[in-house]
Amino acid sequence: GAGVSQSPRYKVAKRGQDVALRCDPISGHVSLFWYQQALGQGPEFLTYFQNEAQLDKSGLPSDRFFAERPEGSVSTLKIQRTQQEDSAVYLCASSPTWRGSYNEQFFGPGTRLTVL
Amino acid sequence: AQTVTQSQPEMSVQEAETVTLSCTYDTSESDYYLFWYKQPPSRQMILVIRQEAYKQQNATENRFSVNFQKAAKSFSLKISDSQLGDAAMYFCAYHRAGNDMRFGAGTRLTVKP
User: Fold this and answer.
1) In this structure, are residues A23 and A75 in contact, taking their beta carbons and an 8 Å threshold?
2) Looking at CA atoms only, how far is residue B30 from chain A in angstroms?
3) Among A71, A44, A72, A76, residue whose Cα is nearest residue A58
4) Residue B53: helix, strand or coil by DSSP?
5) Which residues have C-beta within 8 Å of that of residue B10, sequence separation ≥ 6?
6) Using CA atoms, how far apart are residues A19 and A38, in angstroms rounded to an integer?
7) CB B14 within 8 A of CB B37
8) Nearest-CA distance from A15 to chain B in Å?
9) Which tens digits make up the pLDDT trace of B57-94?
10) From the CB of residue B20, how many other CB atoms can be counted at a distance below 10 Å?
């Protein structure tokens, strides 16, 4: 596809369940970002990959959050033992260059996670 | 830390009229970029316009223009000839090279026919 895709679009989990959210960036894009967007708020940075290397995970809220991008393309954000406060939209974005240069980030449609 | 403030949670404009969305930010840096993103109900964030801090000239993209006041750390978005399709959440964002992008809380724009 031409854009960033994410799956699933909606996910409902019971508290304590593990979830995995997938991001397919634009082909060839070097940088990949994950954001968390709470209801009525702007996106907040979670983590950054340059190719397969996770260079910044300073925004991950707890050690229950884990992200990977093993082959430098598709990325997965995993949340273990979900809590109600994890309910949010999780956005993925990719960019053709590394984070040190200024370039547009192309966003996916997001995954809305609801933890009951 | 850099913060971005959007003081207008909601704005409304009549179709074909002009509306201005406000954004202020806090930084001690001199080299950075500012962005306005649009997020319709489909949730896909779309870049509207961007401004390089070192450029004095305000960016324009068709009906969208910005008023960038570097000293005042202000970056407002003007939408001219508003259309129904402009209705969305608008986010102001700050980005400095090598760092993560910081977003404001957003402004919900309603366009009345």
Assistant:
1) yes
2) 14
3) A44
4) coil
5) B107, B108, B109, B110
6) 17
7) no
8) 25
9) 999 999 999 999 999 999 999 999 999 999 999 999 99
10) 15
pLDDT tens for B24-64 read 999 998 889 999 999 998 878 999 999 999 888 999 999 99
Chain A interface includes B43 (CB < 8 A):
yes
Banded model confidence at residue A82, pLDDT cuts 50, 70, 90: very high
Which of A35, A57, A102, A113 to mutate to test binding with chain B, by most B CBs within 10 Å of its CB?
A102
Q: What is the CA radius of gyration of chain B?
A: 13
For chain A, say whether B38 makes contact (Cβ under 8 Å): no
Residue of A38, A30, A41 lying closest to A99 (CA atoms) = A30
Q: In B, which residues are within 8 Å of A107 by CB distance?
A: 37, 44-46
Does B44 contact A59 at a Cβ distance shorter than 8 Å?
no
Interchain CB contact of B69 with A (< 8 Å): no
